[in-house]
Amino acid sequence: MNVYDSSRMADILRPLGYAQVDVPEDADMMILNTCHIREKATDKVFSEIGRLKKHKDEKEAKGGKMLMAVAGCVAQAEGDFILQRAPVIDMVFGPQTYHELPEMVLKANGNERVVNTDFPTISKFDHFPEEQNQGAAAFLSIQEGCDKFCTFCVVPYTRGAEYSRPVAKIIDEAKKLVDQGAKEITLLGQNVNAYHGENSDGKIWGLGRLIEAVAEVKGVEQIRYTTSHPRDVDEGLINAHRDIQKLAPFLHLPVQSGSDKILKAMNRKHTGDRYREIIADIRKARSDIVFSSDFIVGFPGETDQDHEDTMQLIRDVVFASAYSFKYSARPGTPAANMSALVREDVKTARLTEIQDLIAAQYFDFNKASIGKTMSVLFERKGKKEGQLQGRTPFFQAVNAEANDRLLGQFVDVTITAATPNALVGEVKTI
Ligand code: SAH
Ligand code: SF4
């Protein structure tokens, strides 16, 4: 989401004469686009400001000017406090205000310090200029915000209420992305499958129906979506996995915990078994689909048995990959006031156990890919000279020797070797 937001900020700033540069020394403005999801991420912002400050100081010592801004969810949550703690910062603005960047830059250039953490009633999406080329694999934001209020999470507070963009705007944007070379589109949202956007006939579409329409856009060859919530997996979406071949056989479906007690305390509103059922239903619809997930270890009150329930769920489902995090108390969230905190060393041990199990599952999956031929979209040059890098439909990273002219193309690649985190492949028609 933040990668996408950064590219949209660049789009908005371009008409003002700004262009992206590779090193801070060349910049007239630096924007730190931030994440507030865990404490570590927030801490990083201030150390990063400290690190980058010297570039501004150097430039200003030579009589130049450099604006420094904090954007994103830390900006939304901390607002004015950032200006107080970091005098070097000129602008602080939240995720729903990016379309107002031109006015903000004008003020900041006039030496006014700007804090903008509004949730404007008009959608920023209606004010974004046309996008610049995102390449062969493009993101398209269809939904933002969240009304679910999981007890550990800051998103509903920093990103605001759930909002779905109208169907016509999304289809329009998909066409433009294809014109610019996109072959794969990843539909983005904090709760992407809570999507309920209005079609031009006034009907409300769910994500399944929307995917069907995006698949009909000429030139779209593969579709992904992220991040989804188990509660919003409905029949329409399951049928989309059955009927739409362009929908990649990979689904990131965060579960957080396998313990019913913890899931309840997290306000996830489903049980471990309900999650297993959803997985089974989707597998029935698309037999080759693989899953990834998010896990939080050490939520308040989590016992050894709760942790074991999570381990059992991972053994039962078998994931192709996953992100796992130690629980981090976020100010203002209900869980931050909960007792029965889990000791740090216990969290560390549980995290290691989960990560080891999932890493083994992922390595097994990668090894099972050897000998298979898959359609890989080459997105960038590989680490080694003469190699290109892309992803399989199952979202595994692949490196293969290939001619540069295959960059941005779907190419059949035969997998020849597997490491825990990536694959090596061979292209027939180099
Ligand atoms: N909307 C998605 C998740 C968005 S946040 C969902 O509901 O599943 C991305 C991930 O960050 C979450 O899945 C969760 O695993 C992690 N996360 C969120 N808040 C956290 C916290 N307070 N501590 C640790 N991890 C957290
Ligand atoms: Fe956060 Fe996801 Fe829960 Fe929304 S559904 S509150 S984004 S974890």
Mean pLDDT: 95
Helix content: 25-40%
Radius of gyration: 22 Å
The unreliable regions are: none
What form results from the Cα inertia axes?
globular
Q: State the total count of DSSP E strands.
A: 19
The main β sheet shows up as: 5 strands, mixed, barrel
Q: Structural class, from secondary structure content?
A: alpha/beta
> How far apart are the termini?
34 Å
Give the bound compounds: S-adenosyl-L-homocysteine, iron/sulfur cluster
Number of helices: 13
Assess the beta-strand content as a share of residues: 15-25%
Query: Going across the major beta sheet, what is the strand order?
Result: 15-16-17-19-18
How does this structure look, described?
- With 430 residues, the protein is of the alpha/beta class.
- Helices cover 35% and strands 21% of the residues.
- Strands 15-16-17-19-18 form a five-stranded mixed β-barrel.
- It starts with a helix and ends with a strand.
- 40% of the residues are buried.
